[in-house]
């Protein structure tokens, strides 16, 4: 590295000696008390926006309430009334998946623009994204390139972070918090507590990544998830649509399966998880400042959760392969694909009449 470091570990370890435990673990230099206000505003915005766009299941709201009329006349309800898109009895399932398709579409496009702008491909420089593909050691998650260093940008832990990334993180945390909030106003599915755990884990990991300034890793992890979820939720939305709108259902489902394998298995494993787990390599590009996981703020926590997520990816991919078999069989019979999250696909409860005596 010559006479200068492309990281700020020297500065961090010098400062941490005079700081308490909490201070030494709040690394992101832009964090302030204003973040709480921005988070609350974004959370309120996301909660209201989802209600206006997709609403909630009408059968859990009092019909005399003004909320009942609003949630039955959302933007997607108006769209459905005009074009008759949703299958009968599955309007909320259609709206719910449409909403998530919109969110993941926005998140993917925004994140893609962020990554592309920092990649170096647009201005023919060695951006950190380009360097990640050239050197798959994981070093460029933490180091700045020579070009960035000449621009007075600093590497991790005190890595520079622009406002576009910073507020994107706050929006992500507010979105998933709103998802956790909305679970209370959905029909309780058999995996309700699994989704509670999922949303809580997502929020905590985003918060941890935000505080520890692991934003480069965080952006890539969000990217490999969003790009797959776009295809997933478009497929699910089409599945709950009338047959005349299902022309591209098979195409998007195939895209979902292959994108899952490439991004969440191959790219995530070989370009993120394995490089960040190799301590021998990490020692070489941290100039001896990091010799074990205990030297890293957070210890083994990030690596543990990276591998835990990898195990979940393998498990879900196994389920996807099983689901693909069902998809092929049902598609050949023109039957609807059932959502394994729910025992009852319909939006309304079906009340079975008790048999009369003597029958």
Put the structure in a nutshell.
By secondary structure, the chain is an all-alpha fold.
Would you write up a description of this structure?
InterPro entries: Lag1/Lac1-like, TLC-dom. This is Translocation associated membrane protein, putative. Keywords: Membrane, Transmembrane, Transmembrane helix. Residues 96-329 form the TLC domain. Its main location: membrane. The chain contains 14 helices and no strands. With 359 residues, it is mostly helical. It is globular and about 65 Å long. The chain has a domain at 25-30 and 96-332.
Question: Topology, please?
Answer:
Layout: H1 9-16, H2 21-25, H3 34-53, H4 66-71, H5 75-83, H6 91-119, H7 128-134, H8 146-150, H9 163-182, H10 192-211, H11 215-239, H12 249-277, H13 279-285, H14 301-332
Helix pairs in contact: 3-9, 6-7, 6-11, 9-10, 11-12, 12-14
Q: Quaternary arrangement of the chains shown?
A: single chain
Low-confidence stretches: 349-359
DSSP summary: helix tally: 14
User: What's the Cα radius of gyration?
Assistant: 24 Å
What's the count of strands?
0
N-end to C-end Cα span: 87 Å
Characterize the biggest β-sheet: none
Share of helix, binned: 55-70%
H/E element order: HHHHHHHHHHHHHH
Strand content is: under 5%
GO molecular function, one term: sphingosine N-acyltransferase activity
Subcellular location: Membrane
Keywords: Membrane, Transmembrane, Transmembrane helix
Transmembrane segments: 36-53, 98-121, 164-183, 192-211, 217-236, 248-274, 299-321
